[in-house]
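pinned: reference chain
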Amino acid sequence: MFRTRRLAAGFALAISLTASSAMVASAALAVPAGPSGAASPAGPASTGPYSSWKAAQRAAGFSLKHPTKTYTLKRSGDILVEKCEVTGELSKRDVFARYGSVRHQLLSIDQNNSGGPCGNFGEAKTLRTYRVEGVKATLYGFCDLPALPSCNSRKAQLLLTWLKHGVYYEASSRGEWRAVLVSFARSLHLAG
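pinned: its structure tokens
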């Protein structure tokens, strides 16, 4: 639940920079789903904020991937490990890290070991598919609606989701071009 509120607040703030207050209320419901990592847990998983990918991986209990290309954006805050907020998946972990700022450029990666989304990102337009890690990834956008930017604008909020070996990933961006988001997603590498 914390992740859902945290992301809803972050995306509401991001969208409020360009949208009317009526759109902010509905955009706050557009919470991105959480991606996942693979391997089975080595021990009981825990939750909380972690300052390193290695510590977050130990806490989550599954193999995590971290971006190696962040386009000069620094990680903002800790890596958050939380419960997957989906019925029947509460023992799974959802891991989130953000790079940049909600007010400017933003890239984030969310991964979970439930094999599917740990939340609902709401109504978004399906824009196209790409290949990431050799599998199909679908690009979604919060765009081309009243008070929201064009889907071709750098200001559009974008989400790229894919599933590999039972692991669900979601990379998101705001204030970045599509090519940057795709490159960010393709740069994921196993954490230490």
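why pinned: Confidence is low (pLDDT under 50) at residues 1-42. Residues 2-190 form one domain.
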